[in-house]
Amino acid sequence: MGILSADQIDGLSIKSDYKFGEICELYMWATNYEDMYPFRLFIDLIDYTMDREGCTATDFSLVPSNGFRLGIVELSYINGALSDYLNDPSRAYGFLDSIIELENEEEE
To answer: In terms of pTM, does the model score above 0.90?
Structure first.
Protein backbone atom coordinates (compact mmCIF):
# COMPACT_ATOMS: atom_id res chain seq x y z
CA MET A 1 0.00 0.00 0.00
CA GLY A 2 1.18 3.49 -0.77
CA ILE A 3 1.43 6.06 2.01
CA LEU A 4 -0.74 9.13 1.61
CA SER A 5 0.33 12.72 2.13
CA ALA A 6 -1.20 15.08 4.68
CA ASP A 7 -2.99 16.92 1.83
CA GLN A 8 -4.54 13.69 0.57
CA ILE A 9 -5.77 12.76 4.05
CA ASP A 10 -7.13 16.28 4.62
CA GLY A 11 -8.90 16.07 1.26
CA LEU A 12 -10.63 12.83 2.26
CA SER A 13 -11.68 14.35 5.58
CA ILE A 14 -13.08 17.45 3.86
CA LYS A 15 -15.15 15.28 1.48
CA SER A 16 -16.56 13.28 4.39
CA ASP A 17 -19.80 14.50 5.96
CA TYR A 18 -18.29 13.66 9.36
CA LYS A 19 -14.81 14.83 10.23
CA PHE A 20 -12.51 12.03 11.33
CA GLY A 21 -9.73 14.27 12.62
CA GLU A 22 -8.38 11.79 15.16
CA ILE A 23 -8.15 9.01 12.58
CA CYS A 24 -6.36 11.45 10.26
CA GLU A 25 -3.93 12.42 13.01
CA LEU A 26 -3.17 8.77 13.79
CA TYR A 27 -2.59 8.06 10.10
CA MET A 28 -0.20 10.99 9.76
CA TRP A 29 1.70 10.02 12.94
CA ALA A 30 1.96 6.44 11.69
CA THR A 31 3.83 7.64 8.59
CA ASN A 32 6.82 7.89 10.96
CA TYR A 33 6.87 4.07 10.91
CA GLU A 34 8.03 2.09 7.91
CA ASP A 35 5.08 -0.29 8.23
CA MET A 36 2.50 2.26 9.48
CA TYR A 37 2.26 0.03 12.58
CA PRO A 38 0.08 2.26 14.84
CA PHE A 39 -2.49 2.79 12.07
CA ARG A 40 -2.50 -0.87 11.04
CA LEU A 41 -2.95 -1.87 14.68
CA PHE A 42 -5.92 0.52 14.97
CA ILE A 43 -7.68 -0.96 11.96
CA ASP A 44 -7.07 -4.43 13.39
CA LEU A 45 -8.45 -3.39 16.79
CA ILE A 46 -11.75 -2.39 15.19
CA ASP A 47 -11.75 -5.54 13.00
CA TYR A 48 -11.74 -3.45 9.84
CA THR A 49 -9.25 -5.60 7.91
CA MET A 50 -10.78 -8.84 9.12
CA ASP A 51 -14.21 -7.64 7.94
CA ARG A 52 -12.96 -6.30 4.62
CA GLU A 53 -10.12 -8.66 3.71
CA GLY A 54 -10.43 -11.66 6.01
CA CYS A 55 -7.01 -11.13 7.57
CA THR A 56 -5.16 -8.73 9.83
CA ALA A 57 -3.10 -5.75 8.67
CA THR A 58 -0.58 -6.31 11.46
CA ASP A 59 1.87 -9.19 11.28
CA PHE A 60 1.47 -10.40 14.85
CA SER A 61 4.22 -13.00 14.38
CA LEU A 62 6.70 -10.10 14.49
CA VAL A 63 5.48 -8.88 17.90
CA PRO A 64 8.09 -9.48 20.60
CA SER A 65 7.21 -12.20 23.09
CA ASN A 66 6.84 -9.59 25.83
CA GLY A 67 4.18 -7.67 23.88
CA PHE A 68 3.79 -4.54 21.83
CA ARG A 69 6.23 -1.69 22.12
CA LEU A 70 4.03 1.38 21.98
CA GLY A 71 4.67 4.60 23.83
CA ILE A 72 2.20 7.02 25.36
CA VAL A 73 2.12 9.11 22.18
CA GLU A 74 1.14 6.17 19.99
CA LEU A 75 -1.45 5.01 22.50
CA SER A 76 -2.88 8.53 22.69
CA TYR A 77 -3.29 8.70 18.90
CA ILE A 78 -4.89 5.24 18.83
CA ASN A 79 -7.24 6.28 21.66
CA GLY A 80 -8.34 9.34 19.68
CA ALA A 81 -8.93 7.28 16.56
CA LEU A 82 -10.98 4.78 18.58
CA SER A 83 -13.11 7.68 19.83
CA ASP A 84 -13.74 8.79 16.23
CA TYR A 85 -14.69 5.23 15.37
CA LEU A 86 -17.05 4.89 18.35
CA ASN A 87 -18.89 8.09 17.40
CA ASP A 88 -20.05 6.55 14.12
CA PRO A 89 -18.63 3.10 13.26
CA SER A 90 -20.30 2.73 9.87
CA ARG A 91 -19.12 6.14 8.63
CA ALA A 92 -15.66 5.44 10.04
CA TYR A 93 -15.54 2.22 7.99
CA GLY A 94 -16.53 4.23 4.93
CA PHE A 95 -13.81 6.76 5.65
CA LEU A 96 -11.26 3.96 6.10
CA ASP A 97 -12.45 2.44 2.81
CA SER A 98 -11.55 5.76 1.16
CA ILE A 99 -8.09 5.77 2.75
CA ILE A 100 -7.33 2.19 1.74
CA GLU A 101 -8.66 2.75 -1.79
CA LEU A 102 -6.47 5.82 -2.24
CA GLU A 103 -3.45 3.97 -0.79
CA ASN A 104 -4.00 1.19 -3.33
CA GLU A 105 -4.19 3.74 -6.16
CA GLU A 106 -0.93 5.32 -4.98
CA GLU A 107 0.75 1.92 -5.05
CA GLU A 108 -0.12 1.29 -8.69
So the answer is: no
